Amino acid sequence: xxxxxxxxxxxxxxxxxxxxxxxxxxxxxxxxxxxxxxxxxxxxxxxxxxxxxxxxxxxxxxxxxxxxxxxxxxxxxxxxxxxxxxxxxxxxxxxxxxxxxxxxxxxxxxxxxxxxxxxxxxxxxxxxxxxxxxx
Length: 135
What we know:
Blueprint: H1 2-19, E1 33-37, H2 44-60, E2 64-68, H3 75-82, E3 90-92, H4 97-104
Parallel strand pairs: 1-2, 1-3
């Protein structure tokens, strides 16, 4: 399973390098990269993010720090990422919660869809809704 995460991390690192290529960004990354996880440590999103961060760090030769920012169903961490400088040093692990944030919260300081640019899909996690058969 780690092999899958390693390949995913390498893919993300490759995309990041391609996106940041050019004369102005020839030395990217010059410093640590922050990977914001908008959920608590220990959950499935955190586990995936840590595997990706380890692989990215090894590939890029730079630290990738996982920053868990739990709260508000992902709003706290996603908001921190939205307000970060758009310099490629802050990434966020976004999930299906971004699609419903506007419906769940009356006011947000950011647009959970338009404020971000997708880089890579790193995992698929199936969800199931179950109800009593008599309903």
